[in-house]
UniProtKB/TrEMBL annotation:
Protein name: Divinyl chlorophyllide a 8-vinyl-reductase, chloroplastic
Keywords: Chlorophyll biosynthesis, Chloroplast, NADP, Oxidoreductase, Plastid, Transit peptide
NAD(P)-binding domain sequence ranges: 5-196
Family matches, as InterPro entries: DVR-like (IPR044201), NAD(P)-bd_dom (IPR016040), NAD(P)-bd_dom_sf (IPR036291)
GO molecular function annotations of the record: 3,8-divinyl protochlorophyllide a 8-vinyl-reductase (NADPH) activity
Reactions accelerated catalytically: protochlorophyllide a + NADP(+) = 3,8-divinyl protochlorophyllide a + NADPH + H(+)
EC code(s) of this entry: 1.3.1.75
Pathway terms, separated by semicolons: Porphyrin-containing compound metabolism; chlorophyll biosynthesis
Amino acid sequence: MVVAGATGYIGKSVVQEGVRQGYNVISLVRDKEKTSSNSALMSKLSGSTLVTCDATSLPSLNSVLSTIGPIDNAVCCLASRSGIKSDAYLVDYQASSNFLKSCSENKARHFTLLSAFCVKNPWLQFQQAKLAFESELQACDKLTWSIVRPTAFFKSVSGQLEVVQSGAPFVMFGDGEVTRCNPISERELAEYLVECGENDKGRMGRIINLGGPDEPLTMKRQGEMLFEAVGKEPFMVYAPLWLFDVIINSLQWMADKSGSQALEDAAETGRIGKYYAVEDMLTTEPDEKYGEVTLMEHYRKIAVEGQEYDPYTTMLAGKKE
């Protein structure tokens, strides 16, 4: 099994799950030496073979995949960090496309794509990039494929843990009841992705929306659960949704006037924030729910053990010292 995006949040879990299931896992990393010196990261990639590879370069991918023998399952966990247009089309589209081309040329049997539930209603650049690649994958007749669109990761709805633990309020948008979600744990999502290539799972040739076992959770309910997990009384602050429009429109106006790419990217970042403040990330059909770990169980766990810091997870994330 070959994993592209092996050092990412879900990629690391996919590597662990592949190793657990007995696969010979090849982890594609940008810098093997740098990755090997990171003990925390290496603990997640333990049992796999690290190979330096630049997924934005098709020759780099071909030079690696042509030498490793038959590929039973290729799992693509590539995703841009920022979501801005340049990053999205370089990673979500081009790097993913390169990986598919190389897998096809080197006779991979199955290709599993980690996509995103949010592409169902696309008005952001990274969503367009992901959809462009999804279409390319579906048109590929040299291998079987699965496209998995998870609703949200536990980590993406846990960013205010440290803020709440420090005594600050939980910030939500609107009345806190605008959106609902049922996020899925990284371990169970990884399990689902690894098993997509198994013939008896019925996941081949399908686009699969996937959420966790929870009932619909509003942002307000998530806040209440966080406070319960850390043993504090709820302390909520409500931010009006129109703030997004003021900020986005101001940035876009300045970008249009100045031609500044930095301002254009800032406006897009604002649109990304607004999207997740107003759109549901929720599956309701029984076959679109997977796993047993609930968000409350996750909150209780990280309230005690802490969580890995990632400034890209949420604009409200705080680093635990």
